[in-house]
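Design a sequence for this backbone.
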């Protein structure tokens, strides 16, 4: 049975009308041309979902859609969740290219062989690094870059592979653990909590012990993504500053007005450094293997060699 899953993207604009759908990965496409998806939805389907929900699917708002073959209509209930997770992975790829507050709300599955429409949504609602909502306007070339990052390095978790109680298991790589906190940071409008979650991202990704944790994270982040001594020094200071805010937030302290005024800039620093860190890891196969499958001892050894400038061997 053929089904098409579709969702409109919010705060996400393409600066020209696409003449053909842009293929993101197998069976997954993006378009802002209503003609590309009109044939997948009958007038009855549009009445079923209602005019408010149908409008962004028919007025040229960018949409992501996937064409799929399933064995029965009951599978559509699961596959629409898998589709939404792929959309989240695409939105993460968009964040890797440029900070934004792009989101999706409802997704719909439309049967192409019988009368059946289903809808679902996921809870995350991303904001910009400053906790704000504003549209991002992208040229198709940048859209292709997002598509490449999504297809090459990111994928949504499938509902069939969901484990009971928690995903934080031995088989979960440290970068995947970190990205779960990164998603929480991006979905928070409270900048204090946002910064605390960014710090949890750095901690999950880079820490190997609880000793002198703020110094360890600031130093490792600085040497991992900084290119010059001055840049490394700035990153070190910025991560230390962010971690000081995190400590106050999670330990029940309050923030002074002097700190509160600086929260947007501190949050932006965290967002920029998190983006640089993720990109560096996923675009280097040896680093990706280290951060996903390597032991804490291997990461310790790598970081010591990096900080002291001694030769590296990334074999675990």
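Sequence:
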């Amino acid at each position: 049975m053929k089904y098409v899953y579709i969702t409109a993207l919010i705060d996400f604009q393409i600066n020209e009308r696409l003449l053909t759908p842009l293929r993101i990965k197998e069976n997954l496409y993006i378009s802002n041309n209503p003609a590309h998806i009109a044939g997948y939805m009958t007038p009855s389907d549009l009445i079923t979902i209602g005019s408010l929900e149908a409008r962004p699917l028919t007025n040229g708002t960018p949409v992501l859609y996937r064409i799929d073959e399933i064995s029965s209509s009951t599978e559509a209930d699961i596959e629409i969740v898998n589709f939404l997770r792929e959309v989240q992975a695409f939105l993460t790829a968009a964040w890797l290219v440029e900070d934004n507050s792009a989101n999706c709300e409802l997704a719909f599955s439309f049967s192409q062989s019988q009368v059946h429409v289903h809808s679902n949504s996921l809870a995350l609602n991303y904001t910009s690094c400053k906790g704000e909502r504003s549209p991002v306007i992208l040229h198709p070339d940048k859209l292709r870059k997002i598509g490449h990052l999504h297809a090459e390095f990111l994928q949504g978790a499938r509902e069939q592979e969901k484990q009971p109680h928690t995903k934080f298991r031995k088989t979960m790589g440290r970068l995947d653990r970190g990205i779960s906190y990164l998603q929480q940071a991006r979905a928070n409008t409270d900048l204090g909590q946002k910064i605390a979650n960014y710090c949890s991202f750095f901690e999950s990704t880079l820490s190997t012990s609880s000793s002198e944790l703020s110094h360890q994270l600031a130093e490792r982040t600085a040497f991992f993504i900084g290119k010059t001594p001055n840049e490394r020094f700035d990153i070190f200071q910025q991560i230390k500053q962010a971690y000081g805010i995190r400590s106050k937030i999670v330990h029940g302290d309050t923030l002074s007005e002097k700190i509160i005024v600086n929260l947007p800039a501190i949050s932006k620093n965290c967002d920029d450094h998190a983006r640089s860190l993720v990109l560096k890891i996923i675009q280097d196969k040896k680093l990706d293997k280290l951060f996903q499958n390597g032991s804490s001892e291997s990461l310790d050894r790598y970081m010591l060699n990096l900080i002291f400038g001694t030769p590296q061997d990334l074999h675990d």
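The mean pLDDT is 93.
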